[in-house]
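To: structure subgroup
Subject: Chain for Friday's discussion

All,

I'm putting the inputs and outputs inline so they're searchable in the archive.
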Amino acid sequence: MVRRLKIAIVYDPLYPYVNGGAERRYHEIGRRLVGDHDITYLTWQWWEGPARVEQDGMTLHGVGRPPSLYGTDGKRTVREALAFAVRIGWVLGRGGFDVVECSATPYLPLYAAWAATRLTRTPLVTTWHEFWGDHWLEYLPDRPIVARVARSLEAWARPLADAVVAVSGFTLRRMGRAPSERNRVVPNGVASVPEPRVERLVDVGYVGRLIDEKRVDLLIDAVRALRDAGRSVRCVIAGDGPARDDLIRHAAALGVDDLVELPGRLGDGTRDALLAGTRIFAMPSLREGFGMSVLEAQAAGAVPVVVRGPHTAATELVTDGVDGRICEPTAADLAAAIGELLDDDALRGRLSIVARRSAQRYDWDGIAATMADVYGSVARSRRAIVEPRAA
């Protein structure tokens, strides 16, 4: 018989108020475990009403009204991470949980969770959605001291857990870890999506956050290159973020605002319908710890085109020429890959069929079961250490 555990999931954003890959991961896993375990989600209070509410069987515990996650430069702020760290530290310090699961990023809440769980002798699981290393120096070139501090905090945070979970082998390798009982790879998954439409009205689409690292400007440049080559394509870029206004202006400056639509953030049903009606899904991002939207596109039968680079795991989801295409991170190469697929219906059809099969390997039910095994394992290990001392 499985022992019922009291599990705390700690992360400052919350789905569906913030619609990123990590938020959806915790939402999908948490709601699948509530039948066998008690799940409390510690986060900012994104909702109206009392600080503690029930949603999808989980207890949402808000630790305060959410400040802005991003600064005017479009980057996550230290102030928000510090405020969240202080608040969740107080909650976790009171104990009452059998296992705490904390996102590794941002790092300050992880340090607070580690300190609190050491005081309460509670096992801690961390999930690493990505690992930057020296990329911090590229990300903050105008703030080298801050970049070095962030790089150090990230490196020092690696051992701060009883079990470490990475969402991809790429991320685990970047952490300098090999798979083991303590270091596990548990990927993200994909929920069911509508069957692909017979008539796909969108030539190329993108769904995700609109931040500089996603390099969505490359997709707009590729649309311009295709138009200059005599091919007008319908491109839909769905999502929101600090880069959205700049992207709108960029499309206008290139004279392709009639070909590029930026409808903003879409609800789940509308997003799924968009993917089901899209021929090609473009992922020009140079930084992906996993690439969940690529997986969702494959499940909908949209053929993904992803760019390769040293900081993206999205290429691990695609076998070039089998269930998608991989290209260089340039507008010219992206345009060439998109143009090839649009010109060859037979090739695109074959890749679409295999892409849907590839996505079926990533089932949320199986992933949630794996995470339940991780939680149960650390809980048993901690009891084996603590209970003899108490005797």
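Points worth raising on Friday:
The first strand starts at residue 6 and ends at 10.
Residues 364-390 form the longest helix (27 residues).

D.
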